[in-house]
Amino acid sequence: MAAALLSKSPRLVVCAVLCIFLFPEVGVLRRAAALGINYGQVGNNLPPPPQVVQLLSSLRIGKVRIYDVNPQVLSAFAGTGIELIVTVPDDLVPGMAASASQALQWLAAGVRPYFPATRVTGIAVGNEVFTGNDEQLKASLVPAMRNLHAALAQLGMDAYVRVSTANSLAVLATSYPPSQGVFTQDAAPYMAQLLRFLADTSAPFWINGYPYFAYKDDPTKVSLDYALSNPSHVGAVDPYTHLQYTSMLYAQVDAVTFAAARLGYGNVAVHVSETGWPSKGDADEAGATVENARQYNRNLLMRQISGEGTPLRPKLRLEVYLFALFNEDMKPGPTSERNYGLYQPDMSMVYNVGLNQQATTSAASLSLATSPASRRDVRKDFAGLCLVTSLAILLIITQALLL
C-alpha cells in the first residue's frame, strides 16, 4: 500500500533521495544537537544570558553545562529544549553530605522552580574533588550525591536528572595504553564508592580530558596530530587489545573505562564533561594557537556528527562537552586559562569550527559548508524543503500502514 501511494508521488521520492545524497546537513542538524558546551561566567564583560541562549540556539547546541544555579541563566534556558547540567560548588558539598535537608533545600530553591520548563538533566557535584587536597571534601562527596539523589526522588525528579561529579584525568595512575588504565592508590577507594553510586542510579562517570596538557608538558615526544585527534594520523595501537587510537582524548576515555572495569564497574558510561584547546598562551605554553584550537574542536565536532564512539565502544557515541563557549577574562592562572572560548565576550568568533549562525531565518541552523554565501543560502533553503518533504513522505507511509 505504501509503495502504491509513493508511486503516485514520484517527485517526492526523487526529492527525498536527492536530499539524502546532496544535502546531508539535514541529518547533521539532528546529530549536532547532541554536542555539548561549557558556559562559564568568570568574566566581567560577558553578554546577558538571553543573548547567550539565542546564540546557542542558533548554533544548534543541544547540551550545556553551567557552574552554578544562576536564576537568570536558568530562566533564560526555559522553553529552549537545551539540556542543562548545573553545578553544586565545592563549598556546599560537606553541608549536603551531613544533612539531607540541606540537599533538599538547595534543590527546591535552586532548581525545582525552573523545572521542567528549563530542561535540567544533570547535577555536577563539585569539580575535580578527588585530585584535590581537601580530605573532608573527598569523604563528603559521595554522601552528598546520595542525599541529592534522594532529594530528587522526593521531588519526583529522579527519573529526569542524573547526579555525578567531574573528575580530572589525574585520578588515573596509568592511562596508556588504555587497556592498562588504573586508578591511583589514593583515588581507588573513593572511585569504588563513586562508581557504585553511578551504577545504582544509571548515571555517567564524567571526566575532564585535556590532551593539550599532555602535549604542552612534552611537545617533543607527544604527537601533535594525535593530541589534536586528526583522523588522518596513524595513531597508536594498544598492544594488549590491538585497538587503534587516532585520538588521545578517546584513548583517555577508554583508559577510564578499563580502570572502572578493574573495580567491577565496566558497565558505567564515561562521558567527557570538559575538553578543549586554548587559542593563546604564554611563551612556555607550547601549542596554544588559534589554528590548533580550531583544529582540535573541529575534529571533535566532526566525530560527534558521525556518531563515533571510542575504539572500545565503537557503537556508543561519546558524549562530549567542549570547553568553552566564551573567553573568560577573570580566570586566574596562565594566559591559556582565559583563552579557551570559541567566542569573544562580544559574541564574535575567536575561530570558526563550522558552527555558523544563519541569521536570515528565524530557525537558525548549523552549517558545515565552506561554499560562498549565495550557495550556502540556496542549500539552507533547500535543506528546509528536504526536511518538510521527508516529513510528508513519512506521513504518507504512516497513513498507508494504518489503512
UniProtKB/TrEMBL annotation:
Gene Ontology BP terms: carbohydrate metabolic process
Enzyme class (EC, first level): hydrolase
SUPFAM superfamilies recorded: (Trans)glycosidases (SSF51445)
Reaction(s) the record says it catalyses: Hydrolysis of (1->3)-beta-D-glucosidic linkages in (1->3)-beta-D-glucans
Coiled coil: none
Spans through the membrane: 382-402
Keywords of this entry: Glycosidase, Hydrolase, Membrane, Signal, Transmembrane, Transmembrane helix
MF terms in GO: glucan endo-1,3-beta-D-glucosidase activity
Family: Belongs to the glycosyl hydrolase 17 family.
Record's protein name: glucan endo-1,3-beta-D-glucosidase
